[in-house]
Design goal:
By secondary structure, the protein is of the alpha+beta class. The chain has a domain of 61 residues: Glutaredoxin (3-Layer(aba) Sandwich). The protein has three helices and five strands. It has a three-stranded mixed beta sheet, with helices on both faces. The protein is flat.
Length: 95
């Protein structure tokens, strides 16, 4: 059966993303907010993890770091960022 929300990120696409990010010079944190019974959470997480995987490395550190917060387990993280819907993403420059 065809799943309209399932995505596949092939190597060609990963290479295009890698090239788009190659001039990146500051670290970024991608916070992914997910929860139960969420139709798009796994695909959103897959995209964020792909960004992390192909991000440039500077001084031995990958410039994109993904943090995952689950609605039932990380309520304070949801409240701190004002997250009310899932899936949600925030992109923050790391210090």
């Amino acid at each position: 059966m065809f799943d309209p929300v399932a995505i596949e990120i092939d190597e060609e696409t990963k290479e295009a993303i890698r090239e788009a990010l190659e001039d990146m010079d500051k670290p970024v944190e991608i916070n992914v907010y997910i929860g139960p019974n969420c139709k798009y959470c796994s695909e959103t997480l897959k995209i964020a993890k792909t960004l992390e995987e192909v991000a440039p490395v500077r001084n031995g550190t990958r410039l994109i770091k993904v943090n995952v917060y689950e609605k039932d387990k990380d309520k304070s993280a949801f409240e701190e960022q004002g997250i009310t819907r899932i899936p949600s993403l925030t992109f923050l420059l790391s210090p």
